[in-house]
Write a structure and sequence with these properties.
Helix content: 55-70%
Number of strands: 2
Strand content: under 5%
Number of helices: 4
Oligomer: single chain
Amino acid sequence: MNSTSRQSMNKRALTSMFMFFSFVCLPASGIPLHYCRSGDFSTAEHFLMSVHNMAATMFVIATVLHLVWNWTALTKYIIDKQREFFSFKREMLIALFVVVLLVGLFSSHALHVH
């Protein structure tokens, strides 16, 4: 295979794959970490926390790159260039509502006083 027949790396696809695989690592490490908390800091907890922290860091970096490289497409969901104002699309509002609702419901247990 010569160098002229090689295709260049697709940075958007690579970024999406980093986002996907690091995202998969987050619950795979976070859920066991949540349930294996003990008084002493075990090797398993240290390992799970290291995996979780690195996956979160990679996910955030990949997400920022994804936003930068797809900014034009993403703004088309928000800005109505015909009318020159923000026109929030139905899909964006539904996604925002569902995320806020689920995060609120699942995290509200921490606010209950025992």
